[in-house]
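_Backbone structure tokens_
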Amino acid sequence: MKIVVLGCKGQLGKCLYDQLENTDYEVVFTSREQINIIDFEATKTELLDMAPDVIINATAYTAVDKAEQEQEKADLINHLAVKNIAEISNIMGCWLIHVSTDYVFDGASRLRYLENDQTNPQCVYGLTKLHGELAIQSSGCKYIIIRTAWVFSEYGNNFLKTILRLGSERDTLDIVGDQIGCPTYARDLAKATVCTLPFLGNAQESGIYNYAGDKSCSWAEFAELIFRKAKKLGRMKCVPRVVAITTKEYPTPAKRPKNSRLDSSLFETYFGCKASDWEAKVSEVLRLEQQIQRNSYEKY
């Protein structure tokens, strides 16, 4: 099986590289320098030349607040470029695995969201990701769409790394406590993506699946856990006080769902891959992130 991974330099892309580099799959990892997905014709030429059996799209415009001002750019990357990739996949008869988001929901439900629940995005980012999903579904290609949430890792920019930085600078942090979600370790998400590959035979039907953390929390609770783990590992001497505030007290350009918990049971049942045990993985990320920093310093 030949696989092309788009977006290999993002946090999910790097985790996919870690998961796929020593497998029997023939994998081509591409960054924006190799395939710039907003150049539709060049993307088509490159992908047709590579002729993969599976395309994994790990690219996205993820600046949620900035998307409110950069609507055209967000739509270009999250919707129109995805539509182009899906149409190319249909021409080649290959599978497309695409990563979407919990922000396609409005957060009004009190329950965990299932795959067939009504979508109703409340921000530009969520809307463009939903339009990308719909473009894939209408393209005629074979697809797996994986909706995930609150992704963090030792790579890239994410909530965990931002909180560590802020925690080293301040004694008290005001963090939203009335938005609830399921944090997801990017390495677990990468493993889950790889778990789908053996199922991509003639009998496999296209579909949307949720894959996220096994437990839910608020952003404030997530931060508190990160600080506790960091202190236990000796990363922090003093843990800042976390003050849980309301969404109204911390207005942002983009409206976020108050409940974006995803139910991953369908993915677990079908592909045999358990939801992300994110609480247990925070310590691992802290160690790996520290090692990456150390290695960077040693280069200079």
Summary: The mean pLDDT is 94. The first helix runs from residue 11 to 20. The longest strand covers residues 95-101.
